[in-house]
Design a protein that fits this description.
Length: 431
């Protein structure tokens, strides 16, 4: 497989680095300098952080339907943050999200939605087994839990609507059932603010990463044991004929046999420099973390669906996460999002304490809510895997296997044509 240079060191890039190094490649990964370490202590991240290491930790195999759908478009107005919902469309970022929204509407036709659904369902089918295999590979099998997750509602009316909606969804390899009385009581015991949980459902065959910090460390350590090299910094690409070359921020130019772009929301600028059109947007999410000492270790991810909030227990902290805010990658955080999360925590009476950490991350999202995975038509040594929206953590090992197949010349198990970045066309100067 020769020399491979990976641009982007998030969970997709690290999983790909492990699989490619296992296959015998000489792999170098370039990654930005890490920010402040995550934990449960008080800290505010005012600018977006890599979403790989601050997300909800949910291995979401049930989310087979792309969010670019007629149903999502019809429900968007009532989901606006200004009306109490989780959808943020900041007016100061309208030049970023308005063109994206127009492309999303075009991607939500019944035919395109059906094709996207088939592609996404195929990707998700092996997601949990792939994570178990990756966890075993990096010698951290207990970093993956497969106890499913729980969804609860706060009124009989929302419970009836929510249960009916989930019953009508294609949830892939997951299954669901009404929450048993004992588990509902356990969830209710965490809600100490006078709110009564009316009902809930439990998903089976979904999973959770038990400790994102340990996952990152284990992936990096195994990558290095396999001979992988990491460069701290940034990189840009340029084309020399039909070959991609890498330019490091210090000025050094490299000509590796293969370049793999896994740079999340930053992949758009990198790929567009070579001539691709990449209408990617930062879909920003927010979380609050606190010490986990009062949160049961065996409680799976708990979704308060009426509040669009998921609460996850990690090794040493408990985290509440929410919001879909479309904007620019580096725009400052909106403190109102954190304030609302804290109000939800207070209204529910969840045991979070007062030493809270505030975090924001930027998910990389394409208008059809499908990732871009494939080999470039503009540079024959360029492979890419980015744009996984909410499913970057979920699909990282699956994606690693696919790019290893592409680079090694093995036929991938899935038809990757629907995921080609060329579906968005090319920049005018290269069209």
């Amino acid at each position: 497989m020769g020399e491979i240079f990976i641009v982007g060191g998030g969970v997709v890039g690290l999983c790909a680095g492990v699989r490619l190094a296992e296959a015998g490649a000489s792999v170098t990964l370039v990654d930005k300098a890490p920010g402040a370490p995550l934990g449960s202590g008080p800290h505010t991240f005012n600018t977006p952080q890599p979403p790989s290491w601050g997300n909800a930790g949910h291995i979401a195999v049930e989310q087979t339907a792309p969010l670019a759908s007629g149903a999502m478009i019809r429900s968007a107005p009532k989901r606006l943050f200004s009306l109490g919902g989780a959808l943020g469309l900041p007016l100061n970022a309208i030049s970023a999200w308005a063109p994206f929204a127009a492309r999303l509407v075009r991607a939500a036709t019944p035919a395109r939605f059906a094709a996207g659904h088939r592609a996404l369902k195929g990707l998700l089918a092996d997601a949990l087994p792939a994570w178990k295999d990756m966890a075993a590979t990096i010698e951290a099998p207990d970093v993956v839990r497969d106890e499913g997750h729980i969804v609860v509602w706060e009124s009989p009316e929302s419970a009836a609507r929510g249960y009916a909606a989930w019953q009508g969804e294609d949830i892939g390899t997951a299954t669901l059932d009404h929450l048993d009385a004992r588990t509902l009581m356990d969830a209710q015991a965490l809600v100490r603010g006078g709110v009564t949980l009316a009902d809930g459902i439990r998903f089976s065959h979904t999973g959770q990463i038990s400790d994102l910090t340990r996952l990152q460390a284990s992936l990096r350590a195994h990558f290095e044991r396999l001979g992988g090299t990491t460069i701290t910094g940034t990189a840009t690409l340029a084309r020399n004929g039909n070959r991609a070359r890498v330019r490091l921020e210090g000025g050094e130019t490299l000509a590796p046999e293969t370049v793999l772009v896994t740079a999340g929301v930053g992949a758009g600028q990198i790929m567009e420099a070579l001539g691709h059109r990449v209408p990617i947007i930062a879909e920003r999410g927010y979380h609050i973390r606190a010490s986990a000492q009062d949160w049961p270790a065996d409680m799976p991810p708990l979704v308060f669906e009426d509040r669009s909030m998921i609460v996850t227990r990690y090794a040493d902290c408990v985290q509440a996460a929410s919001f879909v805010e479309f904007g620019r990658p580096d725009a400052p955080a909106d403190p109102a999002k954190w304030d609302r999360l804290e109000r939800h925590i207070a209204d529910l009476g969840l045991p979070f304490g007062t030493r809270l950490q505030r975090w924001i991350g930027a998910r990389p999202t394409l208008p059809d809510y499908l990732p871009a995975i494939g080999r470039s038509n503009l540079a024959d040594n360029l492979v890419y895997a980015f744009g996984h929206q909410h499913l970057g953590l979920t699909l990282a090992p699956v994606t690693a296997g696919l790019v290893t197949d592409i680079i090694s010349g093995t036929s991938p198990r899935l038809d990757l044509a629907p995921l080609a970045v060329e579906r968005f066309g090319f920049r005018k100067e290269t069209a």
